[in-house]
Amino acid sequence: MDIRATHRWDLDETEAARLQSDLAAQIECADRFGAVERIAGIDLGYEDADRITRAAVVVLKFPELTLLDYKVVRKPTTFPYVPGYLSFREVPAAIDALNALSVDPQMLFCDGNGTIHPRRFGFACHLGLLADLPCIGVAKNRFIGSHEPLPETQGAWQPIIDHGETIGAVVRSRAGVKPIYVSTGHRVSLESAIRLTLQCCRGFRQPDTTRWSHRVASGPPLESDNLGIGSTLL
DNA sequence: GCGACAG
DNA sequence: ATCTTGTCGC
């Protein structure tokens, strides 16, 4: 791919907050995508005491969820972790990883929130907007907002409300386990985001996109027997 | 002022 | 995110 940032990254918190508010106006919360046959999962990690940021991206065939391609890139970390400004720390490396792909995805699944954000511009919104791709945010922990009690049954979900506005959903991807937090990144409605995410979970708590990206980023080397390109197993 | 706080 | 063994439960 050929994704390019249209703005600078070396901003202080005040400048970053203003940029988020400006760019948030460009986020599309309605469906705008065609046939989805290839989806990407992005996972970020850190090495050498946070000095290096590692971005791992995988492309899976949809809805089969078999591995089509993957890449891992590393680059110096330039921004600290500050709740509310995660994208300024992780999006640059994520873009590099996406640009290194040999197979282009038609939709992105991110580790982190989209519109579940103080200014409605989380990591998934920032990356989706710059990549101009439909994008969904899936977080493992609650950031902001509240919700009604969530049934323990698989597939159950409840809207997440912040200041009277629905900004995402808490989803029981697997019966009886801690839920995940789903929200729009860009060009995908919340309803579609929930449906597509559940389609990628296969009964596991997290979608295969993040399970695979986390695997290629860390876990033992692939390729060996059946864990290479084309496999469905993890 | 106090607690919460995506990865 | 990351540092890490055993262990409780289905």
UniProtKB/TrEMBL annotation:
It catalyses: Endonucleolytic cleavage at apurinic or apyrimidinic sites to products with a 5'-phosphate. The keyword Magnesium applies. GO terms for molecular function: deoxyribonuclease V activity; magnesium ion binding; RNA endonuclease activity producing 5'-phosphomonoesters, hydrolytic mechanism; single-stranded RNA binding. Mg(2+) binds at residues 43, 111. Its main location: cytoplasm. Gene3D superfamilies: archaeoglobus fulgidus dsm 4304 superfamily (3.30.2170.10). The keyword Nuclease applies. Belongs to the endonuclease V family. NCBIfam families: PRK11617.1. This is Endonuclease V. It comes from Acanthopleuribacter pedis. The lineage of its organism: Bacteria, Pseudomonadati, Acidobacteriota, Holophagae, Acanthopleuribacterales.
